[in-house]
Amino acid sequence: MRKVVYILLAALFVVAGLGAAQPVRADDMSNIDDGEAAVSGAGTLVANGDGIALLGGRGIVWLQGNGVLWVQDVGGDADIRVTGYGNMKEYPDGWVQYSGLHGKALIKGSKIRVVVAGTDIKLRAKGRGRVLLWGHGSYETDGVSGEWKSTGIGENVKFTVPRETATVE
Q1: How far apart are the C-alpha atoms of 93 and 131, rounded to whole Å?
Q2: Beta carbons within 10 angstroms of residue 167's beta carbon
Q3: CA angle 131-163-161, nearest 5°?
Q4: Which of 24, 27, 41, 150 is the most exposed place for a label (fewest CB within 10 A)?
Q5: Alpha-carbon distance 137 to 164, whole Å?
Q6: Is 165 exposed, middle or buried (0-12, 13-18, 19+ CB in 10 A)?
């Protein structure tokens, strides 16, 4: 239980900071320090673990787990479907929080931000974007696999497909 509280507190600080953060293009790798790991992919990311996952980009995100989910539809065209949550709260800056998540979510859009903090997280993303993973777990993109980190900034992973094929269905 203590682990979950620490994860949720860290997620709150991260989400609070997202509003002030400068937007990053999915193909811009200049903001990655030497201490962070970046992996280029072929458009699909699969990750499983406990901790925090922050995703941003265009395409489709499927996830399931236990904890708290935040979604922001920056592009104004997202299709957001969430099942198995306790409470939903909408914020003036466009973020929607699903607390008490014990279920699944499907988020599609041309410009979306997704943050999930909790345990037993399973996610798959397809499109163009970037994900930051912090905690314990594993991921794979384009045959390259890695581990989530709970130290420093975490694992920074890029996944892309050619722009013309990264459509939202």
Answers
A1: 21
A2: 13
A3: 50
A4: 27
A5: 32
A6: exposed
Q: Do residues 136 and 47 make contact, with C-beta atoms less than 8 angstroms apart?
A: no
Cα(48)–Cα(36) distance, integer angstroms: 19
By three-state DSSP, how is residue 148 classified?
coil
Task: Check if the beta carbon of residue 55 is closer than 8 Å to that of residue 69.
Answer: no
Q: What is the pLDDT of residues 68-82, one digit of tens each?
A: 999 999 999 999 999
DSSP states along 52-115 = EEEEEEEEEEEEEEEEEEEEEESSS--EEEEES-SEEEE-TTSEEEEEEEEEEEEEEEEEEEEE
**Per-residue b or e along 26-63, where b marks 16 or more CB atoms closer than 10 Å to that residue's CB:** beeeeeeeeeeeebebebbbbbebbbbbbbbbbbbbbb
Rounded distance between C-alpha atoms, residue 29 and residue 25, angstroms: 9
- How do residues 134-154 score in pLDDT, each as one tens digit? 999 999 987 788 888 776 666
Are the C-beta atoms of residues 98 and 85 closer than 8 Å to each other?
yes
Give 39's Cβ-side CA count (13 Å radius).
23
How does the average pLDDT of the chain come out, rounded?
75
